[in-house]
């Protein structure tokens, strides 16, 4: 196994100390923010390595030496707080002065304390009567891509890897991002709008945690891929079922419950940090 170390600032002394902890045979530079500790041995020191990296604000990942980007064919990713930096529903709620109430429900759902479908129903109900133009304002004024998003997507496209954006959020945003970023597929929830106003309802069956997992598996089957060819990425409890259906899962700036169950966690660098785990030169 190799140990990939990443951070906004990686100090030489930190690399040497971590290399000592895992008895690496050498240190290789991937780029200015990422390094490969080659042929590690002391994996019984993982807890100590994890603690050291946390204190040094570094991401770490043990990856097989043979890992390569061309082993994968599909990336399935969450939208809110993963591909983009905001929770869209929280920002929509800010337009009608109920952001604190909605954000509180959002956080509880992401921690896994409230069933997602119930939480979405409660949050959307608080938006009743809002003019649909508020959605465009959120997209134009507040929505930002997460750091490294475009670099990551370009590299995946270069390698022929398909992309599915699957979100418990709303089609208004997923479809715009699909077009803007050249994503292959998108699946999400649809807000009911009548006479230019949000009714406070979601149309059809709510796409929840199981819905995300089902969307992944349905597309994977259609594409004729195995589970091992799929990468999934998310940040909240609603992503766990989806992440469990992939060959490798990545927790991006995620809640503790998600980091604990993911194959890898990226908490300090951008989304393009994923490429360094796949040996994507």
TrEMBL record:
Pathway the protein acts in: Amino-acid biosynthesis; L-serine biosynthesis; L-serine from 3-phospho-D-glycerate: step 3/3
Cofactor or coenzyme needed: Mg(2+)
GO biological process: L-serine biosynthetic process
GO molecular-function terms, A-Z: L-phosphoserine phosphatase activity; magnesium ion binding
Segments forming a coiled coil: none
Active site: 78 (nucleophile), 80 (proton donor)
Matches recorded under SUPFAM superfamilies: HAD-like
Protein name: Phosphoserine phosphatase
Organism from which the protein derives: Sulfurirhabdus autotrophica
